[in-house]
Structure formats: C-alpha cells, structure tokens
Amino acid sequence: MSNQTRLALINMLSDGHFHSGEILGEMLGITRSAVAKHIKILQSWGLDLYRVQGKGYCLSHPIELLNRDIILAACQCPHLDVIPVIDSTNQYLMDRIGQMQKGSVCLAEYQEAGRGRRGRQWISPFGSNLYLSMYWRLDEGIAAAMGLSLVVGIAVAEALTEFGAQGVQVKWPNDLFVEDKKLAGILIEMTGQSGDAAHLVIGLGLNVFMSQYEGKDIDQAWTNLQSCCAVEIQRNKLISHLIQKLSDVLTEYERVGLNGFVNRWNALDKYLNRPVTLLMGDKKITGIARGINHTGALLLETAQGITPFVGGEISVRGQNATVN
Predict the structure, then answer these.
(1) Which of 96, 117, 137, 274 is catalytic?
(2) Do 269 and 170 contact (CB within 8 A), yes or no?
(3) Of 33, 112, 182, 215, which sits 20 to 30 A from 294 (CA to CA)?
(4) 7: which strand partners?
(5) Terminus-to-terminus CA distance in the chain, angstroms?
C-alpha cells in the first residue's frame, strides 16, 4: 500500500512543477508530515526532488512515466508486464520461465536489487533510465546461445542509432559506450538442460536521463542517451523501438547464427584495432583487438599471432593509442 501512495505521489510530481505538501496530502488522504516521509523514500529511490519554502516540492525535471498501452501500440510483443518498483526485472522473468511466450518483456521504473555482470549492482534511479528484460527460447539448445550478448549489443546499438543517438559503440562482450563512457549494460541469464531448449532472460540497463546526482555512486565513467541523441527522447517510444528491434534481431539470429553478425559487430566495435589488456583472473594479456570470430571470441593479436579468447571472466581495458 505504501508503494501505491508513493507512485501516486510521483505521478502528481511528474510534471516537474511545484506542488504544496498540503495539497499533495489532501489529494492522497494523508498528512503533510506523511508526505514528507514519502518524499524522503522517493529520494532514496534516486529521484532528484527538492523543496522550496512556500512553494512546495518539485522534481528537478519532468518524468515521462511508462505507459503499457502506448508501448504495445507501437511494437509486437506477446506479453508485457510494467512493474514500477521491482527487485530485478531479470529475476522476475527467471522466476516465470515455462509460463511465458518467447518475446515476453518486463519493464520497471526502479529496481531495488538491479544487477549487472559478475554480481555487480546496477544503479537504478526511478524513472531516469530504462530497465528492460526479455524472455527468449532457443530450441537448438544452450550451444546456440554462444555469443548472444554480442548480438543483443548489436541490436541495441543499431536501435539507438536509428532512434537518433550518435557515436554508440559496443564493447566486448556486453556493454555499450559513447566516447569511452558507459551508456548501457547487457546481462543474459540462461537455464536449460543439455539436449533441451535454452531459456534465456536478456536484461538491458540503459542510462537515458540519469543526472550526475543520480549516478554519483557509479565508479566508472558513464554517460546518458540524452547527451548523445539528436532528437527529443520519449521513453515509451524508445522502449517500443527497442523491443521490436530485439525481437527482429533475435529472430534473424536463429536463422543465420552469429556468423551473420560478425561484420555488424566489427563496424560498431569501440576497441577494433586498438591496444587492449585482457584480464583473466590474475593473468593479463596485452595485444591489439582485431574484432570477433564466428563463435563470438575476441581476436587478440600478440607477438605469437592472432588468438581467440572466450569466457565470462575476460574483461577488456582499452588503452589510448589507436593502431590501424
């Protein structure tokens, strides 16, 4: 019930104008002191809210809240759950594997336990970004999912470029960057037995409007879509475009495999022909990144020649120089 009140309060404040605590309390059927307590919780959700004596409460900028009907009207999606406050959109779908159609999507405004790769926390301020998870089934089995994070990265980068973003690149194996600053991350979780279909939950966290205040706890350089987009961003329109693009590209992947995406990856690869260091546990290997092969392996050129590297524990750290 408390979240219902808080969500109603956000809806009232979403226009970015001042609203007095007294009027907000009257509309919600609660006291002014209760409004103040809810405001503190909303601030803990990452909302940049402030109060001015005699004027009331105001968001630092208006918020376009997620609207299920608008999204579904602009894309083909067999099932869409929009849950404003959730622990994790990925976990929500993982808990429902076997009950969903391929292409089903879960969206949230705020994740209380958003997660990234290798168990890292994903900072998820309310209403500023995009938290999307899609369920997909590969009848060919787990082996067919090799390199899927690369295909999803291509789909998202191409979708954002089509939407009006400029300079979006992919970082092996699962991130999107603009000018060496992280824009989005992809987390794919999978279940399935050998010889059976693979069940995948594809999670996307995309910084859309996140401010410096909201992202103050992020320990790496990051950017948001607003800073690199040539058009006004409407979140519901953006989400519809991403859902459709993901569905189309995943269907194409089933038909042509990763081999059909190698050139598309290399065209977007932020580290192509650049010196990089691969970190594998305590081991470091330095060389020149030469794109990917048909298995999704990173090709690294060292003094010994070009060697493919795979595995979830490999990370890439770019260096400043560029090699042609």
Answers:
(1) 117
(2) yes
(3) 182
(4) none
(5) 59
**H or E stretch at 7:** helix 2-13
C-alpha span between 199 and 207 (Å, rounded):
27
d(CA 6, CA 35): 9
Contact 276, 319 (CB under 8 A): yes
The answer to whether 97 touches 199, Cβ cutoff 8 Å, is: yes
Residue 117 annotated as catalytic = yes
Residues 316, 324: Cα–Cα separation, whole Å: 19
Provide the token pair at 35.
């409004």
pLDDT tens-digit map of 149-159: 999 999 999 99
Q: Which residues pair with 56 in a beta bridge?
A: 52
CB of 295 closer than 8 Å to CB of 310? yes
Nearest to 291, CA basis, from 320, 276, 271, 310:
271
Tokens for 321, please give them.
């120089």
Which residue, chain included where needed, has tokens 């993982």?
Answer: 94
Q: What is the pLDDT of residues 172-222, one digit of tens each?
A: 988 999 998 999 999 999 998 777 899 999 999 999 987 665 666 777 789
Q: Say if strands 175-178 and 168-171 run parallel, antiparallel, or are unpaired.
A: antiparallel
Cα separation, 216 vs 39, in Å, equals 20
- Of 112 and 294, the structure prediction assigns the larger pLDDT to 294
Whole-number Å distance between alpha carbons of 302 and 308: 11
Of 32, 51, 68, 317, the catalytic one is 317
Is 317 in the active site?
A: yes
Q: 3-class SS at 119? A: helix
* 131 within 8 A of 108, measured Cβ to Cβ: yes
pTM reported for the whole predicted model? 0.89
Q: Which of 137, 181, 182, 237 is catalytic?
A: 182
DSSP secondary structure string for all residues of 242-283: HHHHHHHHHHHHHHH-GGGGHHHHHHHBTTTTSEEEEEETTE
Task: Check: CB of residue 271 under 8 Å from CB of residue 170.
Answer: no
245 CB-near residues (< 8 Å, 6+ apart): 155, 156, 158, 159, 162
